[in-house]
Amino acid sequence: MSEGGWPLTTDRLWRILPVPVVLWFIVFGWKPWPFWDLMIPAMLVLLGIAWKLGGREFLRRPFTLSDVALGVGSAVVLYAVFWVGNAVAPLILPGAHQDVGNVYGLKSGFSPWLVGAALVVVFGPAEASFWQGTVQAAWMHRYGKNLGWLLTSAFYAAIHTFSLNPMLVTAALVAGLGWGLLYRLTDRLWAVMISHSLWDLAILVLFPIR
To answer: pLDDT at residue 192 above 60?
Structure first.
């Protein structure tokens, strides 16, 4: 243990942050294989790193009904924000609807059942464990809750620039801020996992915004 009880030092964290940068470059920039063939293994790598470095700390806390309420409620709010944002975005970013269409095009050729299962079982737990349970937790401990939250959200959005899709980068920033704020206010990783999984499932599979 180190840094006042948190198992991950910020120096060690900086050494592992190149991993998501490389992964996101491969998935969004290089693209040697189809999106889901790359993204699912990338998420599993992040989940493994998070659990190795301390992101599984949440397992020591009991799962409660408040986690469900917070997760579902925040997912609904975030979906509403994106619904409004989708209507406003073309007024600010020319080509916004095309960029959104390109994001949904990533699902082309894949079973919606497989995509939905991956989002709930892999993506939500992996991203919450890595970005909030590992990165944000360490940075909040080192730099304070507000700065740690903002730094994590900014880094999360920045690695999406490999996609060259302004709407995807903006979406990553807004969603990252939302999930980061939920964790910053509640310190409940279960709630973030539920929110992440449900929002992903709703916006990408069940109720697409386009």
So the answer is: yes
